[in-house]
Amino acid sequence: MTNKWVNVLGFVLLIVGILGFFNNPVLGIFDATTTHSIIHVVIGLIVLAWSMVSPESSRGLGKLFGVIFLIVAIVGLVSSKETLFGLVLGGANNFLFLIVGFLFLYLGLGESKKTNTPASMS
Predict the structure, then answer these.
(1) Distance CA 20, CA 23 (A)
(2) CA distance 18 to 28
(3) Which of 6, 48, 51, 118 has the most beta carbons within 10 angstroms of its beta carbon?
(4) What does the domain layout of the chain look like in residue ranges?
(5) Residue 48: helix, strand or coil by DSSP?
(6) Is this structure's pTM higher than 0.70?
(7) Can you state the angle between helices 2-22 and 34-50, rounded to 10 degrees?
(8) DSSP string of 51-117?
(9) Cα 86 from Cα 92, distance rounded (Å)
């Protein structure tokens, strides 16, 4: 199940990144630079490709990108800068970074579905 939702987040990041090239602000709310859009496309592609390896890799991605998105959100909340390495900070973008970060972390820290098989009797 984690794998499915991590793929959904990857797909959404990919679409949002592509939209950022043609429609800024994205959805009329989120400001983006070309660099910002490229980062979203690259992260979306990484998530889609890497999460297809195994459910375990999906959890690892969730943890990794959850921490990254939360750090960017926190930097955006405490920084007076409007951009960070090409990422637009502030306002709605920070809110989105927080939501995506928590979603990724939730999926990454979710329980692993391990099947317990009874010990064989000899």
Answers:
(1) 5
(2) 14
(3) 6
(4) 2-108
(5) helix
(6) yes
(7) 160
(8) TTT-HHHHHHHHHHHHHHHHHHHHHHHH---SEETTEE-SHHHHHHHHHHHHHHHHHHSSPP-PPPP
(9) 16
